[in-house]
């Protein structure tokens, strides 16, 4: 269960702010389905699942980039868009550590795993809520 954002500091573990309702997409799903799922759930990223295991993340930016490069939304698959290296956070990583990961990799979402199991996802908005609350107090 999430703690009140105003009580959380950048030193707290990221599990205090991560979302545990995780939306996923199959690696073989086309970008059109990925975009529809993001729109339906009103989210900016989905975790890609292949062979029942999380393999990465696909974001709105990934979809837009693929289409801008001429990709057919019915012929480009989610698994093609996750890249070779997805950043993962551990539930015990600090909020500040995750913020630094996001900044360094220029990403807005990081999945959280523990012992190989997907347990949550953290968005830039989650991190900013903590950092701005700290700055305002």
UniProtKB/TrEMBL annotation:
Family annotation (Pfam families): CBS (PF00571)
Superkingdom as given in the UniProt entry: Bacteria
Keywords per UniProt: CBS domain
Keyword Lipid biosynthesis: no
All residue ranges annotated as the CBS domain in the record: 18-75, 81-137
Family matches, as InterPro entries: CBS_dom, CBS_dom_sf, Diverse_CBS-Domain
Protein name as annotated: CBS domain-containing protein
Source organism (scientific name): Salinactinospora qingdaonensis
